[in-house]
Amino acid sequence: MGAGDVQDVLDSLADDLDRSLTLDGPEGDLLAHSIRGDDSDRARVSSILRRSVAPDVHAWQLRHVDLTIGTLQRVPANASLELSARRCLVVRAQDRCVALVWLLDDGTPLTDADLDAVRRASGDLARLLTGRERRSARLRVVATADDRPPAVVATEDELRRAVAAAPAGTAVGVSDPGEPGRAAGAALVRQAELAARISADDPSVPSPAHWSALGIYRRLDSDPAHPDPLAALDASPSGPMLLETLEAYLDLAGDVRATAARLRLHRSSLYYRLERLAAVLTMDLGDGRVRLELHLAVKQRRWDRVSR
């Protein structure tokens, strides 16, 4: 079956029930939707436009849904979230939740024929989503700092279970996603093991430690895939000015008064530039490890220019 089959099943169920439906992943990502009439609320419209459910709406819905039960369940309305009452069908496969089907609850009971259609659709979606997940999965490795054998996971649910299985107080490391294969597998194991060890050794690195979030430690490891943290500045029209500001600020250990004096700026102008830097880089300039990574990246660029 093709990639459109999940949408086909949802459309067919929407036709049978004569109701609009949305299909979400367990993490709140929108997988598909099927509109029938005007039975929508602002929360649903927002999720369709964003392609994901807002975190507060997702939390409210899951507070009222048991993911271990594959039957229709009711979620009450929440006026502050602009969310109407709705029913949820938990789609389960291999003893876990793979998706959630949502329909607004207008109080009209479902007929036996409607419930039969729901059951058929649940089975079809479980089969299709599980198959698609297997075909598209990229593997990650989860390791612990106590040298237990690492675990290989393919889904977010498997990742959560592997992390939860670690003994209390034991640091956990998670590799980047990667394709199966001997060489790639060895690299992923190394990433996970190093992430676990640095989390155990450095209190500023929380567990589970994801290799992708290790910042300066990836640079120290000479990771060729380490992205340039300054790349976003290159794409910004104000990039050169912001880069000059960043270097002065880091050279002077974050001293705002000294930085403003060096750049001949009023402090309010400097604060504006620092806010712009944080926004363009999407990084927290108050984080010591972030500052270290950025400072090294700035000096690396200078070194690269003079060492060619």
List keywords for this structure.
four-stranded mixed sheet; 3 domains; five-stranded antiparallel sheet; 308 residues; Beta-Lactamase; Arc Repressor Mutant, subunit A
Structure description:
With 308 residues, the chain is an alpha+beta fold. The protein folds into three domains: 132 residues, GAF domain (Beta-Lactamase), CATH 3.30.450.40; 81 residues, no CATH class; 76 residues, PucR C-terminal helix-turn-helix domain (Arc Repressor Mutant, subunit A, Orthogonal Bundle), CATH 1.10.10. The protein has twelve helices and nine strands. The radius of gyration is 25 Å and the shape is globular. InterPro entries: CdaR-like_regulators, PucR_C-HTH_dom, PucR_C-HTH_sf.
Class per helix and strand makeup = alpha+beta
Strand order in the sheet with the most strands: 2-1-5-4-3
The tally of beta strands, per DSSP, is 9
- Provide the domain count: 3
Question: What proportion of the residues form beta strands (DSSP E)?
Answer: 5-15%
Which second-level CATH architecture of the largest domain applies?
Answer: 2-Layer Sandwich
